Amino acid sequence: MSKGNFFHRLQEKWKLNSLWQVFLVLLAFACTGLTVLYIKQPIFDLLGVDMSTGGFWKTFLYLLLVLPLYQAMLLFYGFVFGQFHFFWDKEKKFFHRIRSLFIHREK
C-alpha cells in the first residue's frame, strides 16, 4: 500500500474510485453510529434493561439486537449516500464470517 495520506490509503484499500466516495462512506459510518447511539437507549428502556450496570444479559442483548440494527442502518445510509454496493459487499463478507463460526464445512 502506498504512503499517501490517510484518505488516499482508504481509497486504495476499499477500491473506491474517488476521494468523494471515501467521504461518503465515512459519512455513512458516522451517521450509522450516531443513529444506533440514539436508538440503543430507547430499545433497552423498552426491554427494561438498566444501562448503568454491566453484565452478561446486557452484552447478550446488545449483540443480539444492536449489532443487526447497526448492519441494517449501515445499508440504509449506504443507500442514502449512493454507496449501497460498497456496503452490501462488506455486509456479505461480514455475514459469511459470522455464518462460518456456526457452520463448519466438511472437507
Automatic annotation (TrEMBL):
Keyword Repeat: no
InterPro entries for the chain: DUF6787
Transmembrane portions of the chain: 20-39, 59-88
Superkingdom of origin organism: Bacteria
Keyword Membrane: yes
Protein keywords: Membrane, Transmembrane, Transmembrane helix
PROSITE patterns with a match to the protein in the record: PROKAR_LIPOPROTEIN (PS51257)
Record-annotated DUF6787 domain positions: 24-101
This protein's name: DUF6787 domain-containing protein
Source organism of this protein record: Echinicola pacifica
Lineage: Bacteria, Pseudomonadati, Bacteroidota, Cytophagia, Cytophagales
